[in-house]
Write a structure and sequence with these properties.
- By secondary structure, this protein is α/β, with parallel strands linked by helices.
- Helix content is 32%, strand content 14%.
- A 6-stranded parallel sheet has the order 3-2-1-4-5-6, with helices on both faces.
- It binds magnesium ion and zinc ion (ZN).
- The site of magnesium ion has 8 residues, from loops.
Length: 197
């Protein structure tokens, strides 16, 4: 897929961005959407943007949850979204962590954010141009990932975002810092037709 046909996407973090931060979400019953998430995703769907979830799930490597649980959570998320006329185009997650205690996941990998592996996979599989895209999350690592792939990065203050915002020592600036994912969606819609700086 070349740059003229590749599409723009919003890569979205999961925990603390679309759904409430729960530490390690180990049971689907503990899943809770923020009240604005479905509407915000639907607005982005209608704007023709691909929506791609990119999530670090090191709880798998740590033995705190399984890939089956993560898949179940994503299945539940998708039914809630679709009931509201919204959808996420693809769900990607990194199950790894170098300090994990489950052997097959305890490794350095190229997909744990802020590494770019998940974005590269999505770009390849879905024909996305990262340079026309956005990354929204509640951690500086999400913004760092945006910098790495040439996307625009939006930090939300939900989840860890308000704490992250106060950590001013890092050499990293977000394109926007907003209260929540509704604010991020508005910012994306206002900026999607402008070229990346
Ligand atoms: Mg997060
Ligand atoms: Zn990984």
């Amino acid at each position: 897929m070349n740059a003229t046909t590749a599409t723009a996407a919003v890569f979205v973090d999961r925990d603390g961005t679309l759904i409430k931060e729960r530490g390690f979400l180990d049971r689907v019953e503990r899943l809770a959407f923020y009240p604005w998430t479905v509407d915000a995703i639907r607005a982005l769907n209608h704007a023709g943007l691909r929506i791609v979830l990119v999530s670090n799930q090191s709880g798998i490597a740590r033995g705190l949850l399984t890939e089956a649980v993560v898949e179940e959570v994503h299945g539940r998320m998708e039914s809630v979204l679709q009931a509201g006329g919204a959808h996420i185009d693809a769900y990607y997650y990194c199950p790894h962590h170098p300090d994990g205690n489950v052997a097959r996941y305890a490794q350095h990998c190229d997909c744990r954010k802020p590494k770019r592996g998940l974005v590269d996979r999505a770009a390849r599989e879905l024909g996305i141009d990262p340079a026309r895209s956005f990354i929204v999350g509640d951690r500086w690592l999400d913004v760092g990932l945006a910098r790495t792939v040439g996307a625009r990065g939006v930090l939300v203050r939900t989840g860890y975002g308000a704490i992250e915002e106060m950590q001013t020592t890092r050499d990293l600036a977000a394109d926007a810092i907003v209260d929540n994912f509704a604010g991020a969606a508005s910012w994306v819609l206002m900026n999607m037709d402008r070229p990346c700086r």
